[in-house]
Amino acid sequence: MLECVGALTGSPWIYAVVALSVLFDVFLPLLPSGVLVITAATAAAAAGSGTGRVPQDVPDILLLMLCAATASVLGDLVAYRLARRGGARLDRAIARSRRLTSAQERLGAALARGGGVLFVIARFAPAGRSIVSLGAGTAHRTVREFLPWSALAGVAWAGYSVGLGYFGGQWLGATWLATGVSVFALFAAGAGAAFLVRRPREQPAG
User: In terms of pLDDT, which residue wins out, 34 or 31?
Assistant: First the structure.
């Protein structure tokens, strides 16, 4: 499997695979979109080593980030639109999930206070992107409320993931060790984000 992924990073198809993975992981959070982005960025670190000549078989770092960020926002919008138009049936499904209901309440409170930092933090938490996008749709938040924060979250996540892979590759070399260390850092950020998303619920009111 590692050989297949390594071969893919040297192909122009890496951009399409990354974009599709990021696009659909809002519905299937188990898709390894973050791992793919980091792996491709680690390979791109080879372009910054050696004589300064850019190899032909490594991803372009800026194009990779653009693909990941754009796909993230598009996936959020698709989930948001589907949830917004889902009707009573989807509302009942959301109501049966304590996690989605709680996230919807916190999202509404954050937007009411004029802030949407929850969008950005939740993008790093496991399944947080799905919960926030679906919650915004079922709560019938406007596109003007949703889209700017979704875009900021997508850019922040893509920049962080690409940066981890690229600078990890610069530090440790474009190797699987660098990829593993960067993936661990991504998971650590996800654990921290999950804690922050849950924290307001655990604090007493007032």
Answer: 34
